[in-house]
Amino acid sequence: MTDAYRTVGGRAEARFEVQGSEFIGYISPAETVEEAEAFIEEINERHPDATHNVPAYRVPAGGASSSVPGGGTVMLREYQSDDGEPTGSSGKPALNVLVQQEVRNVVAVVTRYYGGTNLGVGGLARAYSRAVKEALDEAGIVEEIPHERFTATVDYDDSGSVRGIIESSGVEFDADYDQRVSFSVRVPVDEADGLRDRLRSATSGRVELE
């Protein structure tokens, strides 16, 4: 079985004040760089008037796949930014919490509203670390196994049997009924090849898999 990893159970936030400055730590699961960047943008749009919105994330640089040697073994991309705070005072402490807690597929953003008192590099580092830690505690850490995504596209004649197979496998999916029917599937890496084989067999090879 592909190795399990630690991640957050869902979205969460934590708020506190330090010498007049308000800090809000946000955290969310993210399976791709695109998902992480979208969450960062969401928080920036929620707090356009904030003094700083400091991001940090640890997400796979590419999707896990059963067709890749090593299966669920993927390179992690680690990113952080100080967003205008003194160098090393915010982004790095935020990322360090994610590293120390050994969580991945996760993105954090700490929003700060300046309260008029300079906290110094040490004070900032403690505050940004605390914001991520408390958001992590609020979200809860869970064990997850690597998943991959693929799309199965068929004509309407085959859509019923394909949907039935996907539903019976218990995986997450979205269906799009257009000129043809496309099922976007999220499946554990260890089960992906077997599911694809069942779909090919049920449709006599007519299913298009991407």
TrEMBL record:
GO terms for cellular component: cytoplasm. Pfam families: DUF1949, Impact_N. It comes from the Archaea. GO terms for biological process: regulation of translational initiation. InterPro entries: EFG_III/V (IPR035647), Impact (IPR023582), Impact_N (IPR001498), Impact_N_sf (IPR036956), Ribosomal_Su5_D2-typ_SF (IPR020568), UPF0029_Impact_C (IPR015269). Residues 153-206 form the UPF0029 domain. This is Impact N-terminal domain-containing protein.
